[in-house]
Amino acid sequence: MLEILSFEFMQNAIVAGLLVSIASGIIGSLIVVNRMVFLAGGIAHTSYGGIGLAVYFGLPIFLGASLFAVGAAILMAAVTLNQRDKTDTFIGLIWAVGMAVGIVFVDMTPGYNVDLMSYLFGSILAVSNADIWYMSALLVVIVAIVTIFYRQILAVSYDSEYAKLRGVDVRFFYTLILVMSALTVVIAIKIVGLILVIALLTIPVYIGEKLSSSLATMMAMSGILSTIFTFLGLFLSYSYDITSGASIILVSALSLLLFLVLNNTMRKIFNTVKKIKK
Fold first, then answer.
1. Residue 241 or residue 207, greater confidence
2. Could you give the number of structural domains in the chain?
3. Could you read off the pLDDT of 1-15 as tens digits, one per residue?
4. CATH number reported for the structural domain that contains residue 151 in this entry
């Protein structure tokens, strides 16, 4: 078990898993309480367009995907704030166009033969030192923004009308949350891939929400759970030579199932004891 820690790629994978898990816990909580799961899914698939552009122009993959995802997030924020009745249509459109752009530019790239499956289902064992630095910088930015503007973000997340009356710029903070979600989605793609990224952002958060009484506690709990699921999934991936992203998500899903069963059992026991006491 411990010998695998001597490999640099495994060390990078562990650090990357920790960084992405913390970011996912924070941003995943905001995505869930703001009911942005579908928006985040749209951003994840749209970012594939940025991957295709980066490949074609020889740019860093993270840079291309980040710029494309942020642009998509800003467009989605504008549409959802101004024309809510057209939100689903627009998300579906930008989702498909982003994927199509990525595929076309990859096809147009001469001699490019890298396996793009790693971007669809993740490849945490291929994380480089440059990726680690990017993830670290992004996590610092996310933590700083959430810490400085926690009250405003909390108000916008739970009661935007009240926040507006209190003078909070709802449009700005709503867009800011989406932009941070876009950047988190991009780094999470390296871990679980764009197909599975929404599961990483929502499964630990669902459990964390049930065990928390505040948004801050929910973020912390979700980050801890995401870290545990990622490390367990990473170990299983290495041990049985299976895709890391799928392994992490399966561990998360099984943990959620176990939590639901235990939670339901405890509730029945509590109700039974309560009836007996009466």
1. 207
2. 1
3. 566 667 788 888 899
4. 1.10.3470.10
Query: Are 184 and 201 spatial neighbours (Cβ–Cβ below 8 Å)?
Result: yes
User: 151 is in which domain, residue-wise?
Assistant: 2-277
Q: What is the pLDDT of residues 96-126, one digit of tens each?
A: 999 999 989 988 888 765 566 677 777 787 8
Residue 164 confidence (pLDDT) above 70: yes
What is the distance between the alpha carbons of residues 59 and 29, in angstroms, rounded to a whole number? 31
CA dihedral angle for residue 61, residue 62, residue 67, residue 68, rounded to 10 degrees? 60
Report residue 27 CA to chain centroid gap.
7
- Mean pLDDT throughout 21-39? 93
CA–CA distance, 137 with 132 (Å, rounded to integer): 9
Cα Rg, the chain, nearest whole Å: 20
pLDDT at 2: 61
